[in-house]
Specification:
The chain is α+β, with helices and mostly antiparallel strands. It contains 5 helices and 9 strands, in the order H-H-E-E-E-E-H-E-E-E-E-H-E-H. Keywords: Signal.
Length: 260
Amino acid sequence: MRRLPALAALCALSIAPLGCGFASYEARLQATERRIKDEMTINATLAGPMQGAFAENDIYFRAPQGLEQVGQFQLIPLNPGFFEAENSFITPGAGDQLSTGPYQVHALARRDSQEPEQGQEQPEQPPVPRGDFRADVLDVLKVVYGDEVTSAPLEQVSKTIWPRSEPARSLSFERATLTDRNQQLIHIYFYTEESGDATYNAALIWEFPGGEPPTSGANPVDLTLGTFAVGQRAIARFSGRPDSPGGGGTGDAGASAIAF
C-alpha cells in the first residue's frame, strides 16, 4: 500500500509535461487562427502586391481594393530614373479630375545600393544625379500642392504590422499633413530602411477629398501601411513567408525607420 502514493506522484510528474506541451500547442494553434483571420481581412481589403519595378526592387506594396491603377505617377510627369518605382491608384474614372472617392494614393520609392566593389562590373550608363530623397519628393509635390508642402508639420506615427503578432510589432513613419488648394486632406508618409546592401526610401501620398481619413476598424490606409515592406522583409512576403524577425519593425523587432 505504501507504493500507491509514490505511484500517484510518479503519474503526476509524467502527466505534467504533457500538460505544458498541450498548452504550447493550443497557443500555436490560436496564433495560427489569428494569422489566418488577419490574412483574410488583408486579402478582402487590399489588392495583390505590386509587381514590376516594385517587386524587382524588393518593395512590397498593396493598395486598397477598388482603386484604379494608373501604371505611373499620375500627379505630374517625373524625370526618368529619378525613382526606382512609382505608381498612382485613383478613383475609377476620375482621370485628371478631382476625385469624389474617399481616398487616392500615390507611391514613390527609391533603392540606393552601395557602390560596386573594385573588380565588379560597372553599369553601362552613369546613374541619374539624385539628391536627398525627401527633398526630391517635396520638389515634385510643390508643383502639385504648392510651396506650403515644404512647411507641413511632421510627426512620427506607428502602424501595426499585419498580419499581427504577439508581441505586437509596428512600422514607424514620418507623416506630413496639409490641406491643398482643393481642400483635400493630404497625408505624406515617409519611410526609410537599410536592408542588405541597399537603402530604401518611400513616400506614400494619400489624398482624402472629403477632408478625413478612414478611422474605423482595420481600415485600408492602415492595412496598406501595415503590410508595407522592403528588402528582406519584402522578399519574405513575396514568397508567402511571415516577416523575418530581424528587421523592419519596432516592438519585437528593431526600429528601422529614420526621421527625416
